[in-house]
C-alpha cells in the first residue's frame, strides 16, 4: 500500500514527546514490511537536513485573504520519503507550538497551512492509497478531504486514518478565526469543527476520518467516558465502531541497555554488573548525596498537569520519609516546574531536578535508577514505562491508559509481574505503591526476578504493525471496488446535513 502520514513531530528530526517516537519508528517498520511510505512534517528551525531535494517551490496556499508560498523539501531514509513543509514565516521559530510564555497566536493558520500542503503532496506527488494523520495539528486534513475535496478525481475516496496520541491537546481557536482562515462557514457546526463555541481541529479529525485509532486499548475505552473524554466522549462513543486501540511499540535500537551508547556501561538480564556502574554515574551526574545503596527513583517526562506533578508534590513528605532519593528530568509548564523546584529546595541532594530536554540524561535515568515513577493523571500509552522494563528499572505507575495495559503488579509468591501500580489518583495510593516496591527491593531474590521479568518482555513494533496494516487494508478497496471508507462516509453524510 502507499501510505502517506502527517504529523507535527517526527524523530529524529523533531521531538517533544511520544508522538515523535511513534513517527520515527512506525513508518520505517511499515516500509520494511513492503509498503511505500511518505511522512509530511514541518521544517522547524532546529531541523537539520542532509542534502534535501526541493520538490515544490510553486505552491500557493490561501488562508482566507492571504496567499502563502511554502516550499517542500524531501529526504529519504530507511525506505521512507520525508516531506518537509518549508515555510520560514510559520516554522522558522524557537519552538514548535509556542514559547514558555504560551502558544503561538497563529497556530490555527500554521497548522491549516500545514494540512493544506499535506493535501497538495498527496494530490500532486504521492497519490496515496491511505492517509494516516496524527493529532490535532493534522485534524483539518480529513476535514478538508471529506468536504472541499470530496469529489476531487485523485483524492476523493482516499480513506483517512486519524490517530489520537493525546486527547488533552485539541487545537481550539476562537470562532472569529473562521473567516480569516477561509474555512467554509458550514464547517462550524456541532457536527463539524464547532466545540463549545470554538473551532476544534482535533474534533475535525474525529468527525471526518474513516477510522480512528489511539495508542492503547485502555485509553480507547477511557476516552469514551466523561472522566477522560475532555468533552469529546460523546463523539468518541458515537464513533466507537471505527475506534481501535493499538499500543505503541518501542524502538529497541535506541532503547536497549545491551547496546545503548548513552549510558555508562552496557548490561543485560544475564549480566547486570553494568547497571551498578550506571547507577554510580547517575548519582554523580545528579549530585545525589548519601548512601549509594539506597534505591533511586527516576522520572523522565514532560512536566505537565497530565504527568502527576501535583501528586508527587502531595506525596513528597511521605516519600522522603523513606530511604530513597529521586532524580527527575523534565521540561514543560512553568507552574509545575516551579512546584518541582520547590521540592528540590526542601530536599536538596535527595530530590534532584534537571529542567532540560536531554536525550542522554533520559537514558542515564532509565539505566541508573532502581525504579521508575509514572504517576500520570492520564497516559494514552506512555513509552518510558516500557523503556524502563527493558532497562531492569521496574516501573511504579498509576493504572491508567497504556500504563494499565503494560504493567502487571509483581507478586513475590508467584514471581510473576513486572512492576507496581495504583488506581486512585491520590498521594496515599502513590505512597503505598512505592512502599510496596521498596519492600520488594529489600528482598534481593524477588527484585532480581522482577527485573528479569521486565527485561525479557518484548514491546517492539512487531505487534502493532500488523494491526495498522489491517486497519488500512479494511479501508482500502481493490481498484475496481469503488470508493473506500463506505461505512464511515455513510455516517459523515448525516454529519454534513
Ligand atoms: P508524552 O508523549 O506524553 O510526552 P511518552 O511517555 O509517550 O509521553 O513519551 C515521552 C518521550 O519523550 C520519551 O521518549 C521520553 O524519553 C521523552 N522525554 C520526555 N521528556 C524528556 C526530557 N526532558 N528529556 C529527554 N527526553 C524526554
Task: Give the count of helical stretches.
Answer: 18
Helix/strand structural class:
alpha/beta
What is the overall shape? globular
Mean pLDDT: 94
Strand tally is 22
- Which segments are poorly predicted (pLDDT under 50) over 5 or more consecutive residues? 480-497
- Largest sheet features: 9 strands, mixed
Bound molecules: adenosine-5'-diphosphate
Percent helix, as a range, is 25-40%
Note the gap between the termini.
33 Å
Strand order of the largest sheet: 3-6-7-2-1-10-11-15-16
Radius of gyration (CA) equals 23 Å
Oligomer: single chain
Give structural attributes.
globular, alpha/beta, six-stranded parallel sheet, disordered C terminus, 497 residues, binds adenosine-5'-diphosphate, 18 helices, nine-stranded mixed sheet
Protein model, in words:
By secondary structure, this protein is an alpha/beta fold. The protein has 18 helices and 22 strands. A nine-stranded mixed sheet has the order 3-6-7-2-1-10-11-15-16, sandwiched between helices. Strands 19-18-17-20-21-22 form a six-stranded parallel sheet, with helices on both faces. Strand 17, helix 10 (309-320) and strand 18 (325-332) form a beta-alpha-beta unit. Helix 10 packs parallel to helix 11. The longest helix is centred in the N-terminal third of the chain and has 20 residues, at 107-126. It binds adenosine-5'-diphosphate (ADP).
Amino acid at each position: 500500500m502507499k501510505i502517506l502520514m502527517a504529523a507535527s513531530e517526527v524523530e529524529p528530526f523533531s521531538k517533544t514527546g511520544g508522538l515523535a517516537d511513534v513517527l520515527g519508528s512506525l513508518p520505517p517498520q511499515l516500509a520494511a514490511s513492503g509498503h511505500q511510505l511518505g511522512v509530511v512534517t514541518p521544517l522547524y528551525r532546529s531541523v537539520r537536513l542532509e542534502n534535501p531535494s526541493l520538490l515544490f517551490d510553486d505552491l500557493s496556499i490561501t488562508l482566507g485573504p492571504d496567499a502563502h508560498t511554502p516550499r517542500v523539501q524531501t529526504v529519504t531514509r530507511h525506505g521512507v520519503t520525508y516531506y518537509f513543509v518549508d515555510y520560514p514565516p510559520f516554522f522558522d521559530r524557537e519552538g514548535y507550538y509556542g514559547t514558555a510564555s504560551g502558544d503561538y497566536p497563529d497556530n490555527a493558520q500554521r497548522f491549516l497551512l500545514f494540512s493544506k500542503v499535506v493535501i497538495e503532496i498527496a494530490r500532486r506527488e504521492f497519490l496515496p492509497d491511505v492517509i494516516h494523520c496524527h493529532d490535532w495539528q493534522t485534524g483539518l486534513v480529513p476535514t478538508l478531504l471529506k468536504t472541499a475535496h470530496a469529489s476531487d478525481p485523485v483524492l476523493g475516496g482516499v480513506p483517512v486514518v486519524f490517530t489520537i496520541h493525546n486527547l488533552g491537546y485539541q487545537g481550539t481557536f476562537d470562532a472569529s478565526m473562521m473567516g480569516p482562515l477561509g474555512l467554509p462557514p458550514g464547517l462550524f457546526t456541532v457536527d463539524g469543527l464547532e466545540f463549545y463555541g470554538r473551532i476544534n481541529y482535533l474534533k475535525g479529525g474525529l468527525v471526518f476520518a474513516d477510522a480512528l485509532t489511539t495508542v492503547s486499548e485502555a485509553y480507547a475505552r477511557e476516552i469514551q467516558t466523561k472522566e477522560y473524554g475532555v468533552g469529546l466522549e460523546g463523539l468518541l462513543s458515537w464513533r466507537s465502531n471505527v475506534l481501535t486501540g493499538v499500543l505503541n511499540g518501542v524502538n529497541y535500537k535506541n532503547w536497549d541497555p545491551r547496546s545503548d551508547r548513552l549510558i555508562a556501561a552496557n548490561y543485560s538480564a544475564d549480566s547486570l554488573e553494568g547497571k551498578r556502574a550506571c547507577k554510580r554515574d547517575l548519582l554523580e551526574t545528579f549530585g545525589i548525596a548519601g548512601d549509594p545503596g539506597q534505591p533511586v527513583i527516576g522520572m523522565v517526562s514532560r512536566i505537565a498537569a497530565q504527568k502527576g506533578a501535583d501528586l508527587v508534590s502531595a506525596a513528597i513528605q511521605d516519600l522522603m520519609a523513606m530511604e530513597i532519593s529521586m532524580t527527575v528530568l523534565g521540561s514543560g509548564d512553568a507552574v509545575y516546574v516551579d512546584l518541582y523546584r520547590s521540592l528540590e529546595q526542601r530536599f536538596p541532594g535527595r530530590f534532584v531536578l534537571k529542567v532540560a530536554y536531554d536525550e542522554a540524561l533520559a537514558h542515564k535515568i532509565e539505566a541508573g535508577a532502581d525504579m521508575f515513577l509514572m504517576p500520570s493523571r492520564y497516559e494514552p500509552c506512555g513509552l518510558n514505562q516500557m523503556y524502563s522494563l527493558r532497562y531492569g528499572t521496574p516501573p511504579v505507575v498509576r493504572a491508567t491508559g497504556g500504563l494499565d495495559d503494560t504493567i502487571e503488579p509483581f507478586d513475590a509468591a508467584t514471581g510473576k509481574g513486572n512492576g507496581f501500580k495504583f488506581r486512585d489518583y491520590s498521594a496515599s495510593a502513590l505512597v503505598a505503591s512505592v512502599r510496596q516496591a521498596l519492600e520488594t527491593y529489600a528482598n534481593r531474590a524477588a527484585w532480581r526476578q522482577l527485573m528479569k521479568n521486565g527485561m525479557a518482555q518484548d514491546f517492539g513494533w512487531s505487534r502493532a504493525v500488523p494491526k495498522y496494516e489491517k486497519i488500512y487494508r479494511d479501508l482500502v478497496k481493490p481498484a475496481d471496488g469503488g470508493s473506500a471508507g463506505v461505512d464511515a462516509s455513510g455516517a459523515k453524510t448525516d454529519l454534513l446535513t
